[in-house]
Amino acid sequence: MINLTQHPAAPGQGVTDLTGEELKALKLALTFDVRPTTEEVEERADFIAELAYKHRRLTLNEAGTAFIAMIGGAPYLMAPLERALRARGIEPVYSFSTRVSAEETQPDGSIRKVNVFRHAGFISAT
User: Fold this and answer.
1) Which pick of 9, 37, 55, 86 has the fewest CB atoms within 10 Å?
2) What is the pTM assigned to this prediction?
């Protein structure tokens, strides 16, 4: 499974992160500083899907064997990215995590609330 998000995968997710120039290119493709046109969104989706296609990994999922990519980012990019990945035989999934809140007492007696996100599985982009 390849990670197509801007954030490193959590240990134990079984996800391969891109590195180097490919990671830099992925982050640029996922980042929109101005309102994009529909064509730009489609072009970026295709570019990201091509990155995944080059680095696909054969992974067993519930439907049998499939190439899988973990996706996430701007909501308006996700549907075009899902389509572009599927067109290349890659199954898009979203990471599911739970938020665990904890309160920590600080040396000065104040309380600090910390949220920890724990990976709890994947959800198919159906």
Assistant:
1) 37
2) 0.79
